[in-house]
Amino acid sequence: ASALFVFSPSLVLFSRETNGVVIAMTCALAALAFAVRYLDNRQPREAYWSAASLALALLAAREVWTFVLAVLVFLLIVRLRREPSTLDARDLPRAALVFALTFVGVATVFLLHRDGLGAAFNLFGAWLDGLRPGGSPFDPLRLLVLYEPVIVFFGAAALIELAFSVREMEWRRTPLFALALWSTIAFILYSIGADKNPARVVAIVVPLTLVAAWYIGAWLTRWIEAIQAAPDSRQTLLTQETPVLLLAGALAAFLYLVIAEFALRGGVAIADAIAANLGMAQSAAAGFDLATIGALVLVAFAAVAFLGVTTLGIPRSQSVAIIFALVVLSAWTFRQSTMLNFTFAPNAQEWLTPTAAAPGVRDLIADIEDASRWRANDSHTLVIAVDPSLGAQLGWYLRDFRSASFAASPSAGAGAQAVLLPGDAPGPAGWIGQRYDLDFTRSGIPPSSLLRWLIFRDVGSVQSRVAVLWLPKPQ
Considering only CA atoms, which of 140, 155, 135 is closest in space to residue 203? Predict the structure, then answer.
């Protein structure tokens, strides 16, 4: 679970942003963990910590109400099953008091900002508003498959296993059932709701990661125990399972390079050479490239499957297949996390980041500082009139300029030494202007080549928002 959290592309991305959903999900998970510990050891402090964590979660983001709904549904199921109550009547009022003090105290900054209490309650209304049907119902599934393949594959397997064992619900698996219900409800609400903010995927990823980690850990434990129980287990592992895994890995790397070549240049060199020798037309040659890739995939799969079954047998071959899937999906997840979070500049082509700041913003600030030094021998004394429609992002970058003012339709009058306007607004007469990209926004048009986008992220329609810096002509 720790490894999946560390390398999760979506969790790393939204943990680096000023977004309350990660804080909300962290506190919600802590509230659930403390509640489970309280039900296990009956220590009052666990109930108090659970109440405080839930209060903090309710203050962080509207997505926490999905967690609250999942908990209520889970408690209803437990009630219908007529499970014996494990709550202590003496601890519940004290926990409620801790919850109230934490909620009111933090929401109002200890009564210094009373409007915060209303803002906290508004989160519930915003959550309800986001449940209105709308948007593509496949949006969360698409994000999960592209960025979180490990938790999708193994999380789905875990949900199926838990669904078959729900009638024999054991206490040791109760937290797993709660997490499974949480991830399922979050997925359904995100799919049908009109609020398609990519950050909402965190509410699905957090519980589903823990469920998938439980499944992976339990399977690895069984596999290791089976190997250790067999005679000459280490030699068998090195001489039988390892060669099959190495062959599968080498073929997978080769196929990836072939597919990357096809995505980059629209063809495969070997297939193009064969098609040319056969005298195929250009339109037929393109289809021959796809047929060649498909044939290579089938041959590679058949070769590995034949070697695995004849060498290991069907049960052990299934274990090797699961290990191979885990390794390949983990490598893809690591690659996605690197491309999404650790490139030089954010890429608006990523579906998790539909809007990304442009590097030109820094050039804009550097030019303003140069103009300020040229006029007043100080980097931040230039009198700037800024159109507020350029957004809060530009206001943040201009925070060090003491004489920057924001007003609708600013002009060169009133002593302004520089004017910042949208790209389509006319500039002051007699002044010179320079255009800068502020941010890039991905359009809703699907990329022309999905395969090329998947590997390189360099295709698709992107729109830019432009600002123009206007300065008087030098005399």
Answer: 140
Question: Could you identify the residue written with the tokens 């928002």?
Answer: 465
Kindly state the DSSP code that residue 446 receives in the 8-state scheme. P
Q: Taking Cα atoms as reference points, which of 74, 67, 34, 49 lies closest to residue 174?
A: 74
Residue 157, judged by CB atoms within 10 A of its CB (0-12, 13-18, 19+), counts as middle
For residue 95, what are its two tokens? 């926990």
What is the C-alpha separation between 282 and 256, in angstroms, rounded?
A: 24
- Two tokens, residue 145: 């498959």
Residue with tokens 């398609």: 196
Could you give the CA distance from residue 108 to residue 90 in angstroms, rounded to a whole number?
Answer: 28
Q: In terms of Cα–Cα distance, which of 20, 19, 7, 17 is closest to 148?
A: 7
Bridge partners of residue 465, in order along the sequence: 439
380-435 pLDDT, tens digit each? 999 999 999 998 889 999 999 999 999 888 877 768 899 999 999 998 888 999 99
Radius of gyration of the chain (CA): 29
When pLDDT is averaged across residues 319-327 and rounded to a whole number, the result is 93
Alpha-helical (H) ranges within 313-359 are 314-341
SS3 call for 55: helix
Name, in order, each residue with C-beta under 8 angstroms of 266's C-beta and a sequence gap of 6 or more.
286, 289
Distance CA 5, CA 2 (A): 5
The dihedral over CA atoms of 16, 20, 26, 30, expressed in degrees to the nearest 10, equals 150
- Locate the DSSP E strands across 226-297: none
Would you state the structure tokens that stand for residue 474, as one six-digit string? Answer: 């030098």
Q: Are 353 and 346 in contact (CB under 8 A)?
A: yes
How far is it, in rounded angstroms, from Cα 49 to Cα 33? 10
CA dist., res. 226 & res. 207, Å (int) = 29
| Residue 272 CA, distance from chain mean position | 39
> Is residue 475's pLDDT more than 90?
no
Q: Which two tokens stand for residue 8?
A: 């999760």
Taken as a whole, the chain contains a residue count of: 475
The CA-atom distances, in angstroms, between 276 and each of 127, 258, 294, 345 are: 59, 18, 19, 41
